[in-house]
Amino acid sequence: MHFRRKPEDDVHRENMTEKEIDSSSFLEEVEAHRLSLRGAKLTAAIAFVTGTGFTLFGYDQGVMSSLLTAKQFEKTFPQVIVDGEHRNHATLQSLLVAIYEIGCLIGALSNLWIGDRLGRRRTIALGGIIMIVGAILQAASFSYAQILVARVITGLGNGLNQTSTVPSYHAECSPAVRRGSLIMIEGSLITFGITVAISGTAVDMYVRVDFPASKPLFTGYLKWLDFAFFWAQSSSVQWRAPVAIQIVFALIMVVAIGYSHLDGKLLLKAGRPAEAMAVISALEDKPTSDVGVRQLYEGIRDAVIAEGGSSLDNEEGNPSKGKVSLKELFTHGKTQNFRRVCLGIAIQCFQQITGINIITYYATLLFERLQISDTKSRIIAACNATEYLLASFIAIFLIDTVGRRKLMFFGSAGQAGTMILLAILGSINNSAARIVSAVMLFVFNSFFAVGWLGMAWLYPAEVVGLRMRGPANALSTASNWTFNFLVVMITGPAFENISWRTYISK
Fold first, then answer.
1. What is the pLDDT of residues 300-314, one digit of tens each?
2. d(C-alpha 409, C-alpha 417), whole Å
3. In 3D, which of 164, 188, 183, 191 has the Cα closest to residue 46?
4. Relative to the CA of 61, which of 186, 365, 416, 477 has its CA 20 to 30 Å away?
5. 3-6, long-range: CB within 8 Å, 24+ apart, which pairs?
6. Is the pLDDT assigned to residue 145 strictly greater than 90?
7. Helix (H) or strand (E) holding 31
């Protein structure tokens, strides 16, 4: 519901705000909620929590890339072996990878109902706990059906927090002038998680195969890693350990979120002005008497009231006034909710149908398709992930100077051109074409990292107003996981049946 305010009402509200801030009882309450972390340290703490979430997200995406062709993984789950006798296994292999997205979709949609009720921190903690349970079940799996269920549960936790809650939480707690670069850093942490997941197996194989004991001293340090993993080569720990590592990231996130704080906007929306002032003062690292802190508080307060999302705008202090009705997502009017939601959904959709997760989930298999050996494919996949990480840093420095739209156009054009070249080169079956194709997979990741990696998480959080941000981000993230599932599910059967033409479809 929206209402029109009279000019005299604004004056009255402004005067009430000044009296409220200057009252001794209000200042005492603010002091009671004073945060121990302030300024840069508080911003860094929030970034650490959200960064751990994004790293976990990336690790979860990348870990399957190396495991699909691991011998012990194939021994436990023969359904993932694709050969001339089991061509239908391409679908089962893709299902094992893609079923994770179904869990993420369910988790993202769950935020429509529980996101605002639990709040950002509790939702993130709940999602982390669910991911821990899912990871334990995955690592303990002994059958194809069991690991399918476990991956759905893990995805449920990821969809609940990392993708639909963490970006909003960080955007709301970030200074406006630095929000773009901070969210881009989170995008880089996704690639860091992917790099960690893919590189682990690749380094292990590289050490075993390519470094005999007679080589220089540096080899000796690497051989300790070889020694540590040597005993696992005939054990399912070869794949269970990498899957279980995500528990560490989830635990860090769950514990750390308990020491984080809500931002001023959400506290004002919940009708807790003193706590909001304490948080704003801490983020700015200035006293409540500071003119800038007061102006920021009043500006946020007026924005929350204008959106009809606060219990502060009625004398009863009724918190129900701030509850969001889902049908508001499909309204126009001054706030243009439906248009904003559609923009978020479209951005998340476009990010996935570029085909980025063809490489993220199937990197090792793609390089093996180029007739590169199993060992070298893993090493190149790890290098690909590392280069992906380095390319993502470019967007951090360009986002606030070049702007959102231009970077997205740049990324789209580059990815489209790269896919065309991959299709052409794929139809030419010779050594030179295969080498250039491998290079093009690196180039594709680079364009995506600059134009789309972090943008899909930043843009929807920015274009939607505070009142509708939770449910709107749930829908936009659901779009991400829907098309993510589509891309990942069809990739295996597509390459098995139409080979290089798969790139044309992207």
1. 777 666 655 554 444
2. 12
3. 183
4. 416
5. 3/308
6. yes
7. helix 24-32
